[in-house]
Every structure is written in C-alpha cells, then in structure tokens.
C-alpha cells in the first residue's frame, strides 16, 4: 500500500504575532493579579496600622512619641474574638459599626489633646461644643479669615474621614480574620496572655503609658460617665445661684453695701493670661518681677501703696469670660452652661452692687466685636467694645488693639470726664492673649490719638505662626507681652491716677501648658493699688503681701470667694474674715 503524505497548510504569517499577543495578555493578567495581591496586603497592613494607632495613641500631647505606641490594645483582642464568634454574614457590618465608633473615639482623643494642651482639662461632650466656635474666632483673629476657613474645613473633612476610614479599615480586617481563623485564634490567645501579664506587672516602656492598653475603652467610659454629671450640674448650679445672702432683697440699705469705697473710682482690670507662673517660673519671673519692682518704686514715689494676693481661677489657658463671671458673682463658673444659668439668675454681681449703690458703671471690652446682652445683668451702664473704641491701627494678632490704646480710650470716654460721679469700671485687656505675638510697645500717652501710631509696630513683622514653630520664642513672646501689659497698667496709674483711684488688677487665668508646663496650679496674682491707706487697712486681715507681687506664703483663695470677702471688707461695718 502506498503511503499517502498530506501536507499541513502553511501557518498564517501573523501566527507568531498571535502567540506574542496571548503571552502579553497572560503577563498582563499575571501582573495585575500580582499588583492586586500586593496592593491588598498593603491595604491590610495600612488598615491594621490605622486601627492600632487609633486604639493606643495617648490623648496627652507630651506623651505622643513612637515609644508610647508600643502597647497592646485590649480592644483589638476583643474585636478579633468578636469577629470569630459572629456568623459570617454579620461580621462585616458589626466590624464597620465598631470601626465608625473607633473613628468617633479618635475625634474625642484629638479634642482632648487640644483641650488638655490649651485649657488644662479634657473635652466635655455636653458643655464644650460652644468653645469650638471660640477656637474658630481665635484662628480668625490670629491668622485671618483664610486661615480660619481653611482650618475649619480641614477639621470637618478630617472628622468625616476618620469615621469613614476606620469603618472601612475594620471591615477589611474582619474579612482577614475570617479567612485565617486558626491563625487569628492563636494570635488572640497569645496576645491575651501577654496583655494580662503586662497589666498584672504594670509594665511601661515609657512612663506613664502602660503596655497593657485600654485607653479607647476607658475614654468611652469616661465620656459616657461625664454626660449625666454635666446634665445634673445645670440643676445643682441653678440652686446655688438662687441662694445668695447678698441679694438686694437681703440687704437692709443698698447705699451701705460699699460704704468703705464711697467717692472712690474703682477699676477692676483683668490682664490676660497673667498667672502664677509669670511671677515664679524662672523662665519669666526675672523680667516680670523686675517690672513689678520698678513699678512699685515709681508708684511709692507718687504716694501709692499696694497689697497683693492669690486667687485660684476656675479655668486655665482660655475662656476668660468664665473667670470674669466667677470673680464678680461669687460662684465658680467653669463652663458655658453655668455662665448661661448665671446670667439668667438674680445673683448679685460686684458691678451690679456698685451700680445699685450709686456708682456709674462701665465695661471696656476691646476683644468683643458683637452685641453683649449680658451687660444689663452684670450691671453696666455703658459698654465700650472693640468696634466702638475707634481704633485705626492694625491688629496685634488676636488682640485687636494695644492695651495702652484701650486704656487711653477709657480715660477719654469715662475716667477723664469732669461731669461724672464715682465710677466703677471693668477693664479687659488683651495684649497678652495667645498667640502673644506681635505685642505692642509703650508710646507717649499724648501721641496715641486714633491708634495709627501703632501701625509701624505691626507692619513688616514676623507672622505669629513662625514664632509658634519655636517653643523658646513663643515663651519669650508670652513673657514680653505680659511685661508690656503690666507696664501699661502701672503707667496708666502713674499718669492718670489720683487720690480717688482704687486700681484692682489681676490675671484671669494661667496661660496654656506650652507656657506653664504640665499640671500647673490655677493661681493668678491679684493686686490693689491706692493712695488711700484707709482702703488697704480694711483688708489688713486678708494677710496679703505688701507691694505688687504676692509671696509664696500669701494666702490663696478660690476666685469665687472674692466677691463676698470684698463686699464684707468694704461694707458699712466690715466683718473680719
């Protein structure tokens, strides 16, 4: 049989090209799969990292260091156990909800970082939301509208992203735990043993941060516990405000309430952030104390004498108006809810007592640029706010005008008038307000005019944000701005004081912790200056130090004790206390 040979048809000319295309497609698929696998692992690592950091990061700024992150969060162990115990169809949803809660916890930690750093206390989830608007106003005054808007938008976006990203990260991790159940179970068991051992031994890599972390759960518990306390405080405070032994109805003769100051001009002057650290901390005290000593020497040459003591402010780092309300009301006002309750009550304030006893009353508020309806409650006949003072210079960061200009306007509008009776005024000075830069310099009182002279002190200077990048320069700015405010008050007394003047000046609160360090006292100096020795004789039993600076052994009172002690000392028949 003859073999038949069949020839295969020749390959088409593009066959090599097809094989090459298929190879490229396979390589592309392989590359995409590899990228997805690597990308998935990277996303998983990032998800684990952000959840871990959110769980363990401290809420105290000074403790946020790489070493402080070397902790074992018990919440992560509980989360793994929960995912393993849940049915598969519920894992992702429960994990997402827990992640969203963790995002809220991260926001609360961030708020606590800010509040602890500036105000020296944690954020109150019931009472403190109103202070966020004050923070926006501070940014507006310090860095301009663009900076304030940018910071506000960034804060809102970060808050939304924190909740969303934590929810997505937790869902991704729940899928990984479900996929590797045996490995996740062993890891949870080992970490549980290590956590318990670290907890029992109180292990710390860096003090005071424990290795066995439960900070997220503790924060949630703390904030939840604070809610009913804050809500209950409103009722308790209302009862305190209503019980007032000095209420007008309980005073037999209102004209005798302040008989010891009859005919005097009483100026109650708050110096922003003038705290105990300013006169005792070696970083500030040499310059501040030298200012006080030189000022006392000049005042003594003019016939003045002074006594100084300590008051414990209810606030630290900010919220000056709460301290002002505390001093004049005789009640501790340490949150906005108490402030609102106070101004809705019939509680007698110092300014109201002066007004009821025949004094003209005025308030100078250079840092206020909006209506202040509380003036009627506090007992002020006239209020001079920032816009009403007519300043034509440039702002000094948050402070809208120098203290010297505000006092010059007070002299022109109130104290220097010849057609008035005795005057009681509350003056709220702002030049030593954070960010403390730029700060003004004293000029000749006769050259102040409309304030244009101060323009040259601001133009061409460094912006506050540059100073804030250097802690030492920021502390120096605090020191120098405080010295300026004190020099201005003392210079005012020298220039415009007379035999009728009784100047009471004090700090409203300590500055932020970047200035004071951690856990400072809330004490502030208070001083009474006058030429009339009979006025100071009435407070002899207070045991205040002679001069413009209280001593280490000078008595310390709560700021809310001042109203009653002052009214008692200067009433018709002073009561020893």
From TrEMBL:
Annotated transmembrane regions: 38-58, 64-86, 93-119, 148-168, 188-206
Organism domain of life: Bacteria
Record's keyword terms, sorted: Membrane, Transmembrane, Transmembrane helix
Coiled-coil residues: none
Signal peptide: none
Name used for this protein in its record: Sulfatase
Taxonomic source organism: Pseudonocardia charpentierae
């Amino acid at each position: 049989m003859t073999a038949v040979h069949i020839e295969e048809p020749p390959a088409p000319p593009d066959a090599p090209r097809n094989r090459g295309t298929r190879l490229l497609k396979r390589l592309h698929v392989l590359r995409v799969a590899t990228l997805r696998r690597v990308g998935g692992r990277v996303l998983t690592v990032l998800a684990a990292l952000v959840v871990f950091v959110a769980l363990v990061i401290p809420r105290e700024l000074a403790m946020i260091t790489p070493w402080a992150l070397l902790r074992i969060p018990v919440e992560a162990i509980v989360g793994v156990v929960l995912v393993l115990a849940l049915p598969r169809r519920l894992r992702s949803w429960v994990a997402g909800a827990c992640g969203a809660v963790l995002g809220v916890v991260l926001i609360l930690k961030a708020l606590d970082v800010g509040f602890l750093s500036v105000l020296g206390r944690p954020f109150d989830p019931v009472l403190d939301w109103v202070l966020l608007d004050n923070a926006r106003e501070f940014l507006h005054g310090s860095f301009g509208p663009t900076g304030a808007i940018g910071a506000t938008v960034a804060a809102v976006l970060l808050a939304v992203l924190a909740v969303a990203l934590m929810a997505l990260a937790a869902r991704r991790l729940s899928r990984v735990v479900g996929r590797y159940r045996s490995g996740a179970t062993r890891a949870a068991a080992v970490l549980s043993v290590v956590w318990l051992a670290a907890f029992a031994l109180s292990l710390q890599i860096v003090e005071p941060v424990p290795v066995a972390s439960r900070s997220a759960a503790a924060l949630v518990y703390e904030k939840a516990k604070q809610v009913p306390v804050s809500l209950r405080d409103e009722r308790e405070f209302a009862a305190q405000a209503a019980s007032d032994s000095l209420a007008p109805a309980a005073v037999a003769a209102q004209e005798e309430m302040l008989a010891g100051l009859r005919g005097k001009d009483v100026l109650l002057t708050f110096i922003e952030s003038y705290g105990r650290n300013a006169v005792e901390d070696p970083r500030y005290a040499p310059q501040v104390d030298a200012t006080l000593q030189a000022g006392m020497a000049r005042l003594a040459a003019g016939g003045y004498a002074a006594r100084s003591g300590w008051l414990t402010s209810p606030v630290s780092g900010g919220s000056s108006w709460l301290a002002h309300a505390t001093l004049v009301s005789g009640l501790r006002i340490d949150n906005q809810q108490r402030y609102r309750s106070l101004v809705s009550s019939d509680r007698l304030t110092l300014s109201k007592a002066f007004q009821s006893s025949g004094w003209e009353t005025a308030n100078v508020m250079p840092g206020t640029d909006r209506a202040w309806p509380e003036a009627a409650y506090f007992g002020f006949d006239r209020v001079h706010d920032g816009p009403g003072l007519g300043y034509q210079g440039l702002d000094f960061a948050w402070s809208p005008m120098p203290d010297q200009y505000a006092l010059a306007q007070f002299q022109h509008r109130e104290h220097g008038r010849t057609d008035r009776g005795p005057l009681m005024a509350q003056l709220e000075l702002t030049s030593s307000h954070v960010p403390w830069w730029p700060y003004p310099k004293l000029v000749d009182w006769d050259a102040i005019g409309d304030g244009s002279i101060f323009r040259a002190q601001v133009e061409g200077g460094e912006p506050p944000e540059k100073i804030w990048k250097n802690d030492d320069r920021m502390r120096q700015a605090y020191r120098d701005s405080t010295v300026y405010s004190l020099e201005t008050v003392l210079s005012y007394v020298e220039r415009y004081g007379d035999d009728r003047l009784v100047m009471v000046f004090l700090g409203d609160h300590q500055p932020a912790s970047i200035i004071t360090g951690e856990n400072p006292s809330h004490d502030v100096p208070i001083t009474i200056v006058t030429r009339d020795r009979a006025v100071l004789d009435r407070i002899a039993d207070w045991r205040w130090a002679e001069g413009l600076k209280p001593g280490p052994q000078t008595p310390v009172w709560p700021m809310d004790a001042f109203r009653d002690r002052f009214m008692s000392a200067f009433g018709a028949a002073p009561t020893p206390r």
